[in-house]
Structures are given as C-alpha cells and as structure tokens.
Design brief:
The structure is a single chain. A hairpin with a 5-residue loop joins strand 3 and strand 4. This protein has a single domain (30-187), classed as ph1033 like domains (ph1033 like fold). The protein has a 6-stranded mixed beta sheet with strand order 2-5-4-3-1-6. The longest helix is centred in the last third of the chain and has 11 residues, at 155-165. It contains 6 helices and 6 strands. With 188 residues, the chain is α+β, with helices and mostly antiparallel strands. The chain binds a DNA duplex (12 and 12 nucleotides) through loops.
Length: 188
DNA sequence: GCCAACGTTGGC
DNA sequence: GCCAACGTTGGC
C-alpha cells in the first residue's frame, strides 16, 4: 500500500474510539469535484499514473472533515491531484473508482479510504501562487483551508482551473471509471 | 528551519 | 462542555 501524504507517516493511534460503525458519521453534501493533496516525495502524480487502471487506495487520512469528504465521494467523481510541499501545484485530474471503505490498516474502525486512478495530467500545472493571485480561485479551499488534505471544489473553480491548466473539462466529463487507457497514453 | 493555522486532547 | 496545551500541516 502506498502513501498518499505526510499524514501517512503518522502512527495509527490506539484511540479508544467508540465502536462507531464506519457508516454512522455525518455525510456532507456531495461536492461536484474534489481536490486531494499529497507530498510528491511520498506519493506523487507520476506514481499514481504508474498504477494504471488498478489505481491506488488513498490511505493515511487522519482528519475527520477530510474523511467525511471521502465518504461523500461517488463512483466516477473527479478531483484534482495537488502536490503539497514540493511543487505546490495542481498537476492532474484523478477519478474515484471505489467509494469509501474502512482502511485496512486502521484498527480503530475510524478511518476510511477511497480508490482513485489518474485520468489526465494538467498540461499547465497550476501553482498555489497562481491560485491565490486569481480572483476567481482565491476562495478555493486550497487557500482558505490550507491544511485540509481532501477538499471540495466548486464547478466554477473546476472549470477555471481546467481552463488555465489547458484541459478541456468536457474531455473528462462522463468518462467511465475505466478511462485508465487514457492514463496509459499519457505515460508514453 | 521557522512558525501560523488549526485540529485534537485532556484537565477541570 | 469549556478552553489551554499540545501536536501536526504545510507555506514560506
């Protein structure tokens, strides 16, 4: 299993979690799109691309809000892949291919993960600085909730980032969760 | 390496 | 259930 962020390095705490059912938490209103962060030296976009159609379990999330966002994800949902710490830029588009399920290594029954695959790289990666400097993006959770590792993205933000990044959102829309072939092409 | 932001923990 | 102390994230 791979790491999807610095949080992955954390020990799994033996917290005395009430034996809450994994499904019992609040489920926020589903956002149209998402953004998921990872430190590229731990788990990078290139590594996700290399996983191909198998994708990767997005493990290591140890924040309730981030977990709840993963719970709200639907099969086929799209999200941005953001490189934190190194690069600090949005580098690609990923897709949810398996909805939230208990994280196998978590013995507390508290944490969950989703499986994602790489869909397309952003021809022009969008840096955090560019996001902050753009009036249409300055309110993104990426800016306002800096430390949240899994966050919602609005339709407007999605469209604007895609435009700036050189991606036609329509080329992603409605793609089946089997678009890993596109990934294979981007590797060549 | 520093430190601001902020989520979590634990004393009361 | 409040809130101070503590720990972590992540930009700079």
């Amino acid at each position: 299993m791979a790491m999807a962020g610095k949080v992955q390095k954390m020990q799994v705490k033996k917290k005395t979690a009430p034996a809450a059912k994994p499904k019992s938490g609040p489920v926020p209103t589903a956002a149209p799109y998402w953004l998921m962060k990872s430190e590229p030296d731990v788990f990078s976009w290139e590594m996700l691309v290399a996983r191909g159609a198998k994708g990767e379990p997005w493990t290591g999330v140890r924040n309730y809000l981030a977990r709840n966002h993963m719970r709200a994800m639907k099969l086929g949902d799209l999200g941005f892949f953001y490189h934190s710490n190194i690069g600090k830029e949005i580098v690609g588009v990923l897709q949810v291919v398996k909805t939230a399920y208990p994280e196998p290594t978590d013995t507390t029954g508290t944490w969950e993960c989703v499986d994602v695959v790489a869909v397309q790289p952003l021809p022009n990666p969008i840096t955090l600085a560019a996001v902050k400097a753009d009036g249409k993006l300055a309110k993104m959770a990426l800016v306002t909730s800096m430390r949240l590792s899994v966050q919602p993205v609005t339709v407007h933000e999605w469209a604007h980032v895609c435009e700036l990044g050189g991606l036609d959102p329509k080329s992603l829309k409605g793609k089946p969760a089997s678009k890993a072939e596109a990934v294979e092409k981007t590797k060549a």
